[in-house]
Amino acid sequence: MSVIQELSRSKRSVSPRRKGDGRWALFFLAPWFVGLALITAGPMGASLYLSFTDYDLLSAPEWVGFENYTRMFDDPRFVNSIGVTFTYVFVSVPLQLAAALGLALLLDKGMRGLALYRSVYYLPSLLGGSVAIAILWRQIFGADGLVNQVLALFGVQGQGWVSHPDYALGTLMALNVWTFGAPMVIFLAGLRQIPQMYYEAASIDGASKFRQFRSVTLPLLTPIIFFNLVLQLIEAFQSFTRAFVVSGGNGGPSDSTLLYTLYLYLKGFGSLDMGYASAMAWFLLLIIGGMTVVNFLASKYWVFYDD
Amino acid sequence: MTDATTSTQTVTTTAALPPSDSDVPPGTEDRRPTARPRGRQVRAKVGSVLKHAGLIAFGFVMLYPLLWMVASSFKPNALIFREPGLIPTDIDLSNYTDGWNALLHPFSHYLINSAIIVLGSVLGNLLSCSLAAYAFARLEFKGKRLWFAVMLMSIMLPIHVVIVPQYVLFSQLEWINTFLPLIVPKLLATDAFFIFLMVQFFRGIPRELDEAATLDGANHLRIYLQLMLPLSMPALATTAIFTFIWTWNDFFSQLIFLTRPEMYTVPIALRTFVDSTGNSSWGSLFAMSIVSLIPVFIAFLFGQKYLVKGIATTGIK
Question: What's this model's pTM, rounded to 2 decimal places?
């Protein structure tokens, strides 16, 4: 069962049959508790506090109330980075999931070579987050990169895609779509769980292939689509490496690839404006959390649970 | 009435068949509404060939940039910008020797640094996450439901929300420019995704085994060490491989915690390489990029069974 289903129905999953493993639990959970306190929850609280301060790492934090938060919305680079990030996320994630679902549907049902196709399509997902692939992307979409060399074969004169403010973000989105393999593998596993007899029943009733897809596959796959959507949206909001490497660390040209986390990094660890960076981090958490809540609420209208 | 019996019979016959619907056994043809005339079968065959051709072509296009990077790493710089093809007209290994020695330290130095962090992270995750998972899967304790929910939610917590205070903490401990900020958190089960993965796996191990062991006088530590861990090799392997790949590729936290050149890992070294060469030596930059991808590729080759199972089982029921 997925994290998401687990969270929405955690009541069912635990049965308090016995009591009294308390000491053992403390023993087994000790590392996790220490980690939670020192590495996760503690720093979370600290960054919430820092977000209300002016802090440059060298002198003690100084309380400034909501100033960091109000400053954010007067900061044109911040407002721009929100726009860039939303464009990146809400264009590339649907495309990525569409590719993942499309390929999963084509690969379904014990076809020959399934394992090989799956591996080939999955490989980019494993490599896509690396610096090496970001370097490759920078070259491919450069002025005399691979894309333009191929275009030249067809007599088309390309341009420096990564160095043009209108296209640079597009190259990053292409990279995100390129990594459709991981959600595809999840779709494949989901498709395998749909009982064959539903299709048989449907075809006896004279349902066409398309009708079967619309009335059997799609409804039964909605929980998986939902899971992939939530997961990929959260992940896309945190994309960093590709923007950093492709833009040379500054989000250029003219801030067109300044993804949210890249600006956060530049503010916090470039200009040591740690209070501002913490406020940005909490605002990011708010965006991601809010989006996930909206997703869950909306899911009641389109996600179908078979059991 | 007759309609109903016919359809149930059809369901049972088709259910017994293999999923491919190309060959219909004689005798069932008249009763199966889905039976295909011969012309349709030929068309289905042609369709399947076309589909394979399309899938292969698509896979080739997808992997082309990677293949081209490999090919280009053997080409002299001047050719990289002129040859979109895969076969180099002139093979040249100097990109590798140049790239290896292009930075302050030989590239092996960065490979070793990355390997140390990866090794520490893998061992840390295996130990700490399996301990926590045992508690969530097998023990009953106060507040379990709450802690479990906290654990699940921490999976989705963006690192940015904790990175600034972590940096402050680690710099007070004088851990910046050591590997500790990258390894110690793994020993404390902060990669909760793997706790969840192992909880799922542990739940699938029959409780009767624990109960038998308990009757034989084994305590929880022994059950964990001698029963659960040996039976959970697939989950442990999945954890090890994912930790390996994610840590090897990780850029953000290494960029923040490692700023002295001798502590650089492979991703940070590559990024410095980009900055120092600009567009002048793509060949050696590609060569070192390939070197950095080889360990991930090997992990993928030998571990794909676990990788695929890992995403599939944590993704769905």
Answer: 0.87
Beta carbons of A168 and A257 less than 8 angstroms apart: yes
Residue A177 lies in a domain: yes
Nearest-angstrom CA–CA distance, A228 and A179: 13
* B173 at interface of A, judged by CB pairs closer than 8 A: no
* pLDDT of B16 strictly over 50: no
Judged against a pLDDT cut of 80, whether residue B279 lies above it is answered with no
Predicted local confidence at residue B86, as pLDDT: 81
Residue A22 lies in a domain: no
The two structure tokens encoding residue B129: 């996450």
pLDDT digits (tens, 9 = 90+) for B158-170: 999 999 999 999 9
Omega into B88 within 30° of 0, i.e. cis?
A: no
Distance of CA B45 to the CA centre of its chain: 35
> What Cα–Cα distance (Å) separates residue B83 from each residue in A150, B67, B75, B80?
9, 13, 9, 6
* DSSP for residue A54: E
For residues A225 and A98, is the Cβ–Cβ distance under 8 A?
no
Query: Which run of H or of E encompasses B247?
Result: helix B233-249
Pair of tokens at residue B196: 């969840």
Q: Which of A70, A37, A264 is nearest to B161 (CA)?
A: A264
Task: Looking at the structure, give the CATH architecture of the domain made up of residues B100-315.
Answer: Orthogonal Bundle (1.10)
Kindly report the number of other CB atoms within 10 A of residue B39's CB atom.
8
A252 or A60: which leads in pLDDT: A60
DSSP designation for A166? T
If you ran DSSP here, which 8-state letter would residue B25 be given?
Answer: P
CA dist., res. B288 & res. B9, Å (int): 63
Confidence of residue B2 (pLDDT cuts 50, 70, 90): very low
| pLDDT the model gives residue A9 | 55
Provide the domain count of chain A.
1
Tokens of B80: 């990289």
pLDDT for A76 equals 96
- Best residue in B36, B256, B289, B316 for a mutation probing chain A (most A CBs within 10 Å): B316
Q: What is the CA radius of gyration of chain B?
A: 27
Report the distance separating Cα A269 and Cα A273, nearest Å: 7
Domain segments of chain B: what residues?
A: 2-92, 100-315
* Helices assigned H by DSSP within B17-101: 38-72, 77-80, 94-100
The whole-number pLDDT of residue A5 equals: 66
Q: Give the whole-angstrom CA distance, residue B228 versus residue B273.
A: 45
Beta-carbon separation of A36 and B293 below 8 A: no
Closest CB from B139, B267, B317 relative to A130: B267
* Among the partner residues B19, B156, B165, nearest to A110 by beta-carbon distance: B19
CB spacing of A189 vs B150 below 8 angstroms: no
**How distant is the alpha carbon of residue B174 from its chain centre?**
32
> Where residue A68 sits, what CATH number does that domain have?
1.10.3720.10
Average predicted confidence (pLDDT) for chain B:
84
Domain-embedded: residue A132: yes
Q: What is the pLDDT of residue B195?
A: 95
Which residue range forms the structural domain that includes residue A236? 57-302
Q: Taking the CB of residue B231, how many other CB atoms lie within 10 A of it? A: 15
**What is the Cβ-side half-sphere exposure of residue B182, based on CA atoms within 13 angstroms?**
32
**Candidates A7, A21, A32, partner chain B, best to mutate (most B CBs within 10 A):** A32
Structural domain contains residue A213 = yes
Query: How many percent of chain B have pLDDT more than 90?
Result: 64
Residue A40's identity, in one-letter code, is: T
Beta-ladder partners of A54: A62
